[in-house]
Amino acid sequence: MEIKVPHEVSVQALIGLGPVFLSYVISFLYVGIYWNNHHHLLQSVKVIDGSVLWANLFLLFWLSLIPFASGWMGENKFEGLTVTVYGVVLLGAALGYYVLTMSLLKRHREDSVIHIALGNTLKEHVSLFVYVMGLVGSFWFPRLAFALFSMVALMWLYPDKRIEKHYSDIERSSKGA
Amino acid sequence: MEIKVPHEVSVQALIGLGPVFLSYVISFLYVGIYWNNHHHLLQSVKVIDGSVLWANLFLLFWLSLIPFASGWMGENKFEGLTVTVYGVVLLGAALGYYVLTMSLLKRHREDSVIHIALGNTLKEHVSLFVYVMGLVGSFWFPRLAFALFSMVALMWLYPDKRIEKHYSDIERSSKGA
Amino acid sequence: MEIKVPHEVSVQALIGLGPVFLSYVISFLYVGIYWNNHHHLLQSVKVIDGSVLWANLFLLFWLSLIPFASGWMGENKFEGLTVTVYGVVLLGAALGYYVLTMSLLKRHREDSVIHIALGNTLKEHVSLFVYVMGLVGSFWFPRLAFALFSMVALMWLYPDKRIEKHYSDIERSSKGA
Amino acid sequence: MEIKVPHEVSVQALIGLGPVFLSYVISFLYVGIYWNNHHHLLQSVKVIDGSVLWANLFLLFWLSLIPFASGWMGENKFEGLTVTVYGVVLLGAALGYYVLTMSLLKRHREDSVIHIALGNTLKEHVSLFVYVMGLVGSFWFPRLAFALFSMVALMWLYPDKRIEKHYSDIERSSKGA
Is residue C61 within 8 angstroms of chain A, CB to CB? Predict the structure, then answer.
């Protein structure tokens, strides 16, 4: 993911980068959040099999398309079709993450760390719902659709109380307090 | 590996990306599968020496050429020569993986984890055979050759029962069940 | 981060790369130092929560803009506006690192490794001060401002006695000496 | 490091990539060998301080210039000046590796793993000697100089008996044989 260096040196050239920069910021958040969650998800995993491999590749595939979709959207100032394509990529990534989570849950016991940490999938369902709404809306109100997609990213930045609590418990018990 | 952003915003521009996208998908699968298998392969390794280093560099070299070969093929709509070059790169990577596997097997005892996991090399041999067939066919039927190469990628996505079984055993024994 | 290959082969073409090369060197140092410090910082961490995730993404965001800002500045021979933008990116990264450090300190006990290693934040405060001064000065004396930014990078390359001492202690005690 | 996709589809276009491909192969070997050795070097390290950080950044800096130097050389068919610059980059990387090794040796006890593994620095000295000779020769015989640089890469691919032996010993003792 990169922003192309403008040839000119002027405040106007910088302002002209606005849409590119905005789509860069949101896409950076998405990739950062997925990277972080993906890392945590696979860290607590003990069993990997074919369907987990499939789901993982599927997720990474959509994530790998974010720079393309983001660049096309930013360079064309959020024109309708580009926001639709961006939404399709985000929806694909969300589905990939969802399928990966489900594959992992199915292969671990009910009392495993991963079951406790991922028991509540409210955020995942809200995200999928907003993506579909944004996709439909992107034909008429592309900028509103992009605003919806941005709100999903911000929602995922909120601290997840369940996982936090879990980590604190480990910390406390490992210190014998 | 990346898809160049089109200048235009139109459904036609997206459709025009079709061949580029198709070669991107298959190349993504190849790199993902190799990356995954390579990771697993080296994880169970205890002894590394000069010939393993050689074989590893040889494999990574061919993998590093996939973006080039894939891009050239996609941008030229699967013209004969480009599919041939793509097949040569895939064959090179497959040979590198084969040599790496053999080097590792030679340096580990018969009852080591790596011997059990890699005892059966049917998939490897089928892949090499299809690559050679595809290469020969690419002069006359490049699209058919590409279809064959794609089928090899899909074949590797099938869960490998042997390794799965092995991992389940570890899981079970480590939980004392 | 990369330097574009010149079309011509001549000593003049190489000399013409001077400003690009200089900004590449300093940016390389910045990214290298942050990468190193970031790695050490997160290695001694036991508790991660939402605000640490936020601060981490915020830091990585500004670091990801260094190639853009550095390239623009180098290709335009340190023109005023480009140095200002470069300074904003460095300041953003420094703030991100500062917030990340503070988040981590708040979540660990007073006697934890991370508190001992990061107790003294003199360098951090000097850096922030120089960035702000450089930013103000960049409108009138962009080259002087860049020189100030370079001095901050060099300051961070100085061995940090506190951490060194700490590591030596671990080494010594683990060897029973 | 990448090879630019040619616009044309023809055997001539492929042959025209010859010099680019050759410089890509040798540069790939260099980066691969350094990456491998660097990884092994830092793995057996217990103490890191300021001068190790310096040396490490210095080495990575020169390695980061290899794609630039390699691309310039390949696209200009090994013209004199481009081979000289390539040699300067290789010499810089070799010096960085040498300084890093020396910093690490100085900070570890005489009987540590790293002292045993790196006791003999013949290869390092031969490499430095050949780089200097190649650099001088590159003004008159650039292709001969490139051949010398390539031979250094091949020399490093030879199995290093000392390290191999060491690893086998660990393996054997850990298996109780």
Answer: yes
Where does chain A have alpha helices with state H?
11-16, 18-43, 50-64, 66-75, 80-106, 113-118, 122-137, 142-157, 161-174
**Contact present, D114 and D104 (Cβ < 8 Å):** yes
State how far the Cα of C97 lies from the Cα of C107, in Å rounded to an integer: 16
B132: distance to nearest CA of chain D, Å?
A: 20
CB C87 within 8 A of CB C139: no
The answer to whether B82 contacts chain D (CB < 8 Å) is yes
In one letter, which amino acid is C47? V
Token digits of residue C110: 């007073």
User: Among D119, D124, D113, which Cα is nearest to D45's?
Assistant: D113
The tokens describing D134, both together, are 């190649």
Q: What is the pLDDT of residues C11-46, one digit of tens each?
A: 999 999 999 999 999 999 999 999 988 887 887 676
Angstrom distance (rounded) from CA D64 to CA C2: 8
Tell whether B112 lies on the interface with D, counting CB pairs under 8 A: no
A83, A145 contact by CB (below 8 A): yes
Locate C88 and state its tokens: 């904003």
**Is A2 in contact with A27 (CB distance < 8 Å)?**
no
| Cα A110 from Cα D2, distance rounded (Å) | 47
Q: How many CB atoms lie within 10 A of CB A11?
A: 8
Locate A5 and state its tokens: 């260096």
d(CA C61, CA C63): 5
The dihedral region occupied by A109, where left means phi > 0, alpha psi between -120 and 50, and beta the remainder, is: beta
CA dist., res. C99 & res. C93, Å (int): 10
DSSP code, position A110: T
Q: Give yes or no for C22 touching D (CB within 8 A).
A: no
- Count the neighbouring beta carbons within 10 Å of the beta carbon of residue A9: 17
Q: Which residue has the tokens 């990387």?
A: D93
Per-residue burial over A32-45, b if 16 or more Cβ lie within 10 Å, else e, is bbbebbbebbeebb
- Is residue C151 pLDDT above 70, yes or no? yes
Q: Tokens 């799965």 sit at which residue?
A: B164
Q: Select from D47, D49, D110, D116 the least CA-distant residue to C171.
A: D47
- CB burial string C81-101: b at 16+ within 10 A, e below: bbbbbbbbbbbbbbbbbbbbb
Q: Crossing angle of helices C18-43/C142-157, nearest 10°?
A: 40
Does residue C176 belong to the interface with chain A, where contact is any CB pair within 8 Å?
no
CB-count burial class (<10 Å; 0-12, 13-18, 19+) for D16: middle
Cross-chain Cβ contact A159/C53 below 8 Å? yes
Between residues C125 and C158, which one has the greater pLDDT? C125
Decide if B67 and D2 are in contact by the 8 Å CB cutoff. yes
Work out the minimum CA distance from B103 to partner chain A, whole angstroms. Answer: 25
What are the φ/ψ torsions at residue C157 (nearest 5 degrees)? Answer: -80, -15
Inter-chain CB proximity B28 and A61 less than 8 Å: yes
Q: Which residue of D has its CA nearest to C17?
A: D68
Nearest to B53 by CA among C37, C38, D37, D100: D37
Predicted confidence at residue D111, as pLDDT, reads: 74
Minimal CA separation from C161 to chain D, in Å: 8
What are the residue boundaries of the structural domains of chain D, listed by start? 26-166
- pLDDT, tens only, A98-157: 999 888 888 877 777 777 777 677 888 999 999 999 999 998 999 999 999 999 999 988
At B140, which helix (H) or strand (E)?
none
Q: Is A157's CB within 8 Å of C57's CB?
A: yes
Q: Do C9 and D82 touch (CB under 8 A)?
A: yes
Burial of A68 (C-beta count, 10 Å sphere; 0-12/13-18/19+): buried
The radius of gyration computed from the CA coordinates of chain C, to the nearest angstrom, equals 19
Quick check: C47 contacting A, CB < 8 Å?
yes
Residues in chain C with CB shorter than 8 Å from the CB of A1 are: 64
